[in-house]
Design a protein that fits this description.
Strand content: 15-25%
Bound molecules: pyridoxal-5'-phosphate
Helix content: 25-40%
Order of helices and strands: HEHEHEHEHEHEHEHEH
Radius of gyration: 17 Å
C-alpha cells in the first residue's frame, strides 16, 4: 500500500465513524513511516500486539499519540509494557492484574486496562469467559494502580461479518452491567470491538473503540496473531 493510500484510508474511516467512536489503528508489522502517514491524516491512537516491536516505534514517534497494547501480554514483558503503553486492552486474568499492579507500584504509574472478554467462549482463545467477568471486576476494585476502563472483545473468526453481531451484543450487555454496578462506574468508558471487516457492526452495537489494521494499511505481508 502506498503512503498516499494510508492517508486516504484513515480520512475515509474517520469521516464515517460517529463522534462517539475512536479509531485505534492496528499497526502491528507497520513501520514508522506508515504510522506517521496515519498520524498526519488524523489517527491519534495506535494498537500494537508485541511489546518489543512496539518499543522501537514508540521510542521514535513518542507520545503525541496514544498507544494501546492489544496482543497477549506475557508476564516477562509487563515491565516494558507498563513503561510504553497508555492502555492495555487485553487484561485476561487476575494473575496478570497482580503482576501489573506490582510493576506499576514500582514505576509509580497508573495503567489503564480493559478486560478482554472471550465472548464466543472459545477454549483455545485468550480472554475472560463472560461468566467470569464479574469476579475479575470485583477483584480489580481493590487495585490502586491498575485502573479498569471497560471491556474489549475479538469475537470469533466468521465467514460473514454479520455472524459476529451476537458476540458484540453480548459484550455490550456485560459492559452496560459493569457501568451500572462498578464501584468507580464513572471510569468505565471504553468498549473496544470490531476490526476491518466488522467495525461497522461493532459501532451499531455500541463500540466506542474500533481496532482497524488492514483497511488502513493494506494486507499484512505476514499474517501474525490471527
Ligand atoms: C490485527 C488486529 C486488529 C486489526 O485487524 P484487521 O483485520 O487488520 O483490521 C484488531 N485487533 C487486534 C487485537 C489485532 O491483533
Amino acid at each position: 500500500m502506498s503512503v498516499k493510500m494510508i492517508k486516504k484510508n484513515v480520512k475515509t474511516i474517520l469521516k464515517e465513524l460517529p463522534k462517539s467512536a475512536t479509531l485505534v489503528a492496528a499497526s502491528k508489522t507497520r513501520n514508522v513511516e506508515e504510522i506517521n502517514q496515519a498520524i498526519s491524516a488524523g489517527a491519534s491512537v495506535f494498537g500494537e500486539n508485541y511489546v518489543q516491536e512496539a518499543k522501537s516505534k514508540i521510542e521514535v514517534i513518542g507520545h503525541k499519540v496514544k498507544w494501546h497494547f492489544v496482543g497477549h501480554l506475557q508476564r516477562n514483558k509487563v515491565k516494558l509494557a507498563v513503561k510504553l503503553f497508555d492502555l492495555i486492552e487485553t487484561l485476561d486474568s487476575w494473575a496478570l492484574a497482580q503482576v501489573l499492579e506490582k510493576e506499576c507500584q514500582k514505576q509509580s504509574k497508573i495503567i489503564e486496562v480493559l478486560i478482554e472478554v472471550n465472548s464466543a467462549e472459545e477454549p483455545q482463545k485468550n480472554g475472560v469467559m463472560p461468566q467470569d467477568v464479574v469476579d475479575l471486576v470485583s477483584k480489580l476494585e481493590k487495585c490502586k494502580f491498575v485502573k479498569l476502563k471497560g471491556l474489549m472483545t475479538m469475537g470469533p473468526l466468521v465467514d460473514s461479518p454479520e455472524k459476529i453481531r451476537p458476540f458484540f451484543k453480548r459484550t455490550k450487555e456485560l459492559y452496560d452491567k459493569l457501568k451500572q454496578s462498578y464501584l468507580k462506574k464513572d471510569e468505565i468508558v471504553y468498549l473496544s470491538m470490531g476490526m476491518s471487516d466488522t467495525y461497522k457492526i461493532a459501532v451499531e452495537e455500541g463500540a466506542n473503540l474500533v481496532r482497524i489494521g488492514t483497511k488502513i494499511f493494506g494486507q499484512r505481508k505476514c499474517q501474525i496473531n490471527k
